[in-house]
Structure formats: C-alpha cells, structure tokens
Design brief:
Strands 1-3-4-7-6 form a 5-stranded mixed β-barrel. The chain has a two-stranded antiparallel ribbon with strand order 2-5. It folds into 2 domains: 133 residues, no CATH class; 71 residues, Nucleic acid-binding proteins (OB fold (Dihydrolipoamide Acetyltransferase, E2P)). It has 8 helices and 7 strands. By secondary structure, the chain is α+β, with helices and mostly antiparallel strands. β3 and β4 form a beta hairpin.
Length: 211
C-alpha cells in the first residue's frame, strides 16, 4: 500500500492523477447540477457543429472523436495517461540511474500522451459514431449557402467548412467533387447532402456563380 501511494504521489504519475481528480470533481459537480455537462466544451469551443472554427474541434476530428464531449475525452485521456505513468514508474524508472530519474519522469509524462491518445480514440470512437447517427439531420435549407473552408484542405474524402446560419454558425463535414480540391479560406457553396457519409458536397463559389 505504501509503495502504491508513493508511486501515485510522485512525478510523473501525480500529473495525470491531478488531472484525473479534477475531471472526477467536475463530473460530480455536473451530477449535482452546479455545472452543465457542456461547460468546458463551451469554454474551449469544441462543438464542431454549432460554433466558430476551433482548433480543439479540429484535433478531436483528427482522432475520430468529433461530437464527443471534451470533458469525457479529457477524463479518458487522463485515466490512460495515469495508467501508463504508473506502470512506467513501477517497472521502468527504477532501472534508470538516480541522477537521471527526473529527466526519465519528464520523458514518460510526455510520451504517455501517445498511447493515451491512441487508447482514448479507440475507446471513445464507437461513442462518436453513435452520436453521429443520433444527431438530428441538418435542414435542407442550408443548401445553396456560401461558406469558407476551415480544414487544411477539402477533397472527395474529407474536409470541413464554416457556414453562417444567422447565429453562432455551422461547421459541417464537406466533400469536394471527384478530382477537385479546395484549401483553407476558399469560398464554397453547399450543393448536395450526402446522407451515407453524413456530409455535404460543395463546389467553388466562383464556379457556382458562373452557372
């Protein structure tokens, strides 16, 4: 027991332990009604369908977790990071010479993000897919609206664009026509809803205006 407490209260395990504890406290406060479940998402702007473009939303989309509450992602990442650090501190760091253990701990704390992110993505991706299926369909009235590409690029397989809806705005998954590609900042027009991909086909605004 003493060894367990020593490990969890020592660097680097304590870093992820504190983050995990904060997440647990947040969930407890949310359960009592003191916080809304999407409070943190609102602070960081992570809801990719209802707010202005966000780097946080982009990162979640890259690991397949678009639509998953940011608080749940952070909690799961903290848990897996804590597990990685605990195991490393229990079995690997003791093998490092004493003078270098501080550097080894720092390296473990940073390196734990990699398996942590991979494990978080694998664990929560089914939930992201379920959320995408349950999300209400976007009204067809958005067709014909002009927006701007916010992802690095848009091709026939992936991409995102921001559209003004008279409110906070929409960030939608969009696809370019076969053989075409758009880049960040390019103006595009929604022309078709792709139901199977839960995305929209877009075309260049210049080309749309010429028709």
């Amino acid at each position: 027991m003493n060894e367990f407490l020593t490990i969890i209260l020592s660097f680097p395990t304590v870093v992820y332990g504190v983050l995990l504890a904060l997440c647990v406290i947040y969930w407890l406060l949310a359960a009592t009604g003191l916080f809304e479940l999407d409070t943190v998402d609102g602070w960081l702007g992570s809801d990719g369908d209802t707010i202005q473009p966000s780097s946080v939303a982009g990162m979640l989309a890259k690991i397949g977790l678009s639509g998953v509450p940011l608080t749940l992602v952070l909690t799961t990442l903290a848990l897996f990071g804590w597990i990685v650090c605990f195991l490393a501190q229990r079995y690997l760091i003791p093998l490092v010479p004493g003078a270098l253990r501080g550097f080894a701990g720092l390296a473990v704390a940073v390196a734990a993000l990699v398996p942590g992110i991979l494990a978080t993505s694998a664990t929560l991706r089914p939930l992201a897919m379920l959320i995408a299926r349950l999300r209400p369909p976007i009204p067809p009235s958005v067709l014909g609206r002009t927006g701007q590409v916010v992802s690095p690029s848009v091709d026939e397989r992936s991409g995102r664009a921001h559209f003004d809806d008279g409110g906070a705005g929409l960030i939608l998954q969009v696809r370019a026509p076969p053989g075409q590609q758009f880049h960040r900042g390019d103006p595009v027009v929604l022309i078709e809803h792709l139901e199977t991909a839960n995305a929209f086909r877009v075309m260049s605004k210049t080309e749309f205006d010429q028709q």
